[in-house]
Amino acid sequence: MTVLRTLHHFALDPASRQVRLALGEKRLPFVELLERYWEPRAGFLELNPSGVTPVLVETNDDARLVICESRAILEHLEQASPEPDLLGRDPAERAETRRLQQWFDRKFDFEVNSLLLHEKMEKRLFSLGAPDLANLRAGREALRTHMGYMEGLLQDRDWLNGHRLSLADFAGAAHLSVIDYFGDVPWTDFPSVRTWYTKLKSRPCFRPLLADRWPGLAPASHYDDLDF
Amino acid sequence: MTVLRTLHHFALDPASRQVRLALGEKRLPFVELLERYWEPRAGFLELNPSGVTPVLVETNDDARLVICESRAILEHLEQASPEPDLLGRDPAERAETRRLQQWFDRKFDFEVNSLLLHEKMEKRLFSLGAPDLANLRAGREALRTHMGYMEGLLQDRDWLNGHRLSLADFAGAAHLSVIDYFGDVPWTDFPSVRTWYTKLKSRPCFRPLLADRWPGLAPASHYDDLDF
Questions:
Q1: Taking residues B15-27, what's their average pLDDT?
Q2: B107 contacts in chain A (CB < 8 Å)
Q3: What is the pLDDT of residues A97-133, one digit of tens each?
Q4: b/e string for A136-169 if b means 16 or more Cβ within 10 A?
Q5: ipTM
Q6: Which of A110, A161, A173, B178 has its CA 20 to 30 A from that of A154?
Q7: What gap in Å lies between CA A193 and CA A159, rounded to an integer?
Q8: What is the largest CA-CA distance in chain A?
Q9: pLDDT, tens digit, for every residue of A148-194?
Q10: In which element (H, E) is residue A33 found?
Q11: What residue of B is the nearest CA neighbor of A97?
């Protein structure tokens, strides 16, 4: 039975990027539909009343399945298409993957994105005026704290979750990659994070993200450079 | 093999309450350890570096499993103790359960709790002074919007997810129950939500929540009344 997948997403949304990476890693083909989450279409709100990206729609001959938002989509993909496994092979690995997903989607999102991405990206998308320099500074400071935490983990681990690539890496890389689009990641001060990101950036699943461009928002010059 | 469970939680934390409800519904015994998340102990930060409650520790003869934060714990419990099922029997039910979990844990949390619970609860716990009346008003207004959404769902559905009790109900009830502790839920204006909450409040898994008291914070008089 052929499943047709449509992913409603926004190119520079970290949650959407996690799903694109997982779909790519599992070699599941999908059609993309770009949604401007800050002015959601009525048709998109019918799919997800919260208006949040991403939403995955799977259709086959006799059914249509709508799955809203990244955690639900990622858990679904692990059950429906378990190879390669991206969650973890035992309860401890799965707990660590999900702990780190939550870390990035809540703590990092709140402490870094709500300042840095809001000032650099959302203010331009929403036409809210010039960035606030104090917020930018606070966001960059919080980013350094988070990268310090990642650096500590990655000095002992090949991947964030331990020894194998997982959704925890995709969560971290999705967030950092959007900030990197705007040139704000201090790579040179965190060599283990940089090495880890280089490995991820070289994977085929990462290529579509490196090709993303948004009108009026040019990426940093090194953004798609594998040797940054 | 006997598994000993310890739940590190805070009594008035909606995320912790979801896990207590799920453990109760699945009749899984556990020991409780109260954590003051606003001044985390070093020992708690070793379990969860983000300092966020809840954390579940499972130990048996030869292993110790630490599971941090509500989504990871709830997904783990569904895999480890699948009866009764609280996630959903097919991909569509599971997607709807997880959509609503995300709705409460992100959207409701951001739009209601960050105003209403912050002003009524956190300001007293953290000794931050008197509540800001404009924030309280905005939080109450957002709460009405969310309850209107729930009312619409519950006019067509027995439970939030459709026809069966699920983690979506526990997510909604956990959030509302904490706000209800402070007497701020306008039950009379949302009769279907009230009927749904009455059903939940009568379940054995809910009893420990109704017995919660925090020093210096008295609950509303109807808080533990099954006929409110």
A1: 98
A2: 50, 52
A3: 999 999 999 999 999 999 999 999 999 998 999 999 9
A4: bebbbebbbebbebbbebbeebebbbbebbbbbb
A5: 0.94
A6: A110
A7: 10
A8: 54
A9: 999 999 998 999 999 899 999 999 999 999 999 999 999 999 999 99
A10: strand A31-34
A11: B72
Which of A92, A95, A103 lies at the smallest CB-CB distance from B50? A103
The angle formed by the CA atoms of residues B203, B207 and B211, to the nearest 5 degrees, is: 160
**Backbone dihedral region of A27: left (phi > 0), alpha (psi from -120 to 50 degrees) or beta?**
left
- Non-local (6+) Cβ contacts of B123 within 8 A are B129, B130, B131
Among the listed residues A51, A47, A56, A167, the one whose alpha carbon sits nearest the alpha carbon of residue A105: A167
List the beta bridge partners of residue A8. Answer: A33, A55
DSSP A2: P
Q: Between the CA of residue A95 and those of A192, B77, B109, B200, what are the distances in Å?
A: 23, 11, 23, 28
* Smallest Cα distance from B99 to chain A, Å: 6
d(CA B80, CA A203): 33
Residue by residue, what is the 3-state secondary structure of chain B?
CCCEEEEEECCCCHHHHHHHHHHHHCCCCCEEEECCCCCCCHHHHHHCCCCCCCEEEEEECCEEEEEECHHHHHHHHHHHCCCCCCCCCCHHHHHHHHHHHHHHHHHHHHHHHCCHHHHHHHHHHCCCCCCCHHHHHHHHHHHHHHHHHHHHHHHHCCECCECCCCHHHHHHHHHHHHHHHCCCCCHHHCHHHHHHHHHHHCCHHHHHHHCCCECCECCCCCCCCCCC
- Contact partners, residue B110, CB within 8 Å, separation at least 6: none
**B71 in Cβ contact with B50 (< 8 Å):** no
Establish if A228 touches chain B: CB-CB under 8 angstroms.
no
Sort strands B31-34 and B4-9 into parallel, antiparallel or unpaired. parallel
Structure tokens at B185: 């839920």
Running DSSP on this structure, what letter comes out for residue A107? Answer: I
Q: Collect all residues of chain A within an 8 Å Cβ-Cβ radius of residue B50.
A: 102-103, 106-107
- Facing residue for B76 by CB, picked from A69, A94, A102: A94
For residue A164, give the nearest of A95, A64, A97, A77 by alpha carbon: A97
Q: How far apart (Å, rounded) are the C-alpha atoms in residues B67 and B7?
A: 10
